[in-house]
Design brief:
mainly beta, five-stranded mixed sheet, 39 strands, about 10% helix, about 45% strand
Length: about 450
Amino acid sequence: MAAMDIEEDEMSRQVQVRFVTKLKAPLKAPNTTIAIPSNLTRMGLSTLVNTLLQSAASGEEAAEWKHEAFDFLIQGELVRMSLGQFLLAKGITAEKVLEIEYIKAVIPRKEEEPSVHDDWVSAVDGSNPGFILTGCYDALGRVWKGAGICTHILEGHNDAITSVSIIKSKGARSSNDTLVATASKDKSIRLWKFDAEDTLDRPMTIRSFRTLRGHNASVQTIAGQASGDMMCSGSWDCTINLWQTKASEAGGDLVSVKKRKTGGENEESQSEGEAVSSFVGHTQCVSSVVWPEYGTIYSASWDHSIRRWDVETGKDTSNMFCGKVINSIDVGGEGSALIAAGGSDPVLRIWDPRKPGTLAPVFQFSSHSSWISTCKWHDKSWFHLLSASYDGKLMLWDLRTAWPLAVIDSHEDKVLCADWWKGDCVVSGGVDSKLRVSSEISVQ
């Protein structure tokens, strides 16, 4: 009875509000104060703002108005309950006019046709807006112009590809200077060059110009330095290796040069490289590496630790432990300084290493139901990141609320990899052998 009384009281209670936004016309509502029921949730608020926008539109615009999904911020926090419950939980008085900011909801508005592979899709990189790079358990890398459009097949590994990375493409002297790397269970890393502008009727098979050998177990993860001149790798042999990537580099990392003949013609020279240096400290598989700034590499391991390495000295300058196997880390968010990690439980954890005296995560999100395989910050937002899980789902997160903004449930099995693409798409691959593209996601 008491609960019913509270519900009825909330329905009858009115709150004076003003809707504000940074969005441009025609998505800018009139700046007027209105009274609304306190029991409205996000969906009700979204319907109300759409009604206000449609009423303010001209006759033709109003007739063709398409409902837009919005999210709502009060004092910098996303509303994920009824307005009355939110105000009560946050101790906000409703005596004054309440300012509510609305933004476009961060949800996929379109699901592209999947790009089918011959085996599990284990790795994806969407950092170049012109193409998507994938790695597969069939030992092949692939370059995709978009959903279903494969332009290049990277052939050379003899075991499953575990990680892929676009090392250099922006600012290249010519489109043929696009440089990518692939890592494999065959203990090697391969470097490839191709013309990212190719428009082909059928995929072109290309071979690597350099093979990097030095790990004595499966290479699990790779990441490039921002300049593209170097990269790092992590392996099941518990080490992190540094490598030169420049094709013209004639330093001490080149140990042999081979030329193969096929049909009487020489293929492109195939050189082999040795590691420039090796970092030792992890006691189990190095599962994830990122190289976010010039002199610093972060690594995660199945030994439950995240380490920060000084590239010049090869020493680890910071350790964090979370008590779980860690599968993936990424550095981004506010100040490009927050560390997100996922591993052998359903919890996405985020640390802020700038906060002294504490090694506890500053955020923990617990909506997945199985291991987290990947997490990735949006490169233009302080707040947004995505996670992928063995539960078959991807989730989009905003640090301003504890609940996922959206759940992408298009895969039919475990999701093994995911990334942002073009700023408004999420690309993902998994055990269902499909590359999926969820698009038209508005991140502000």
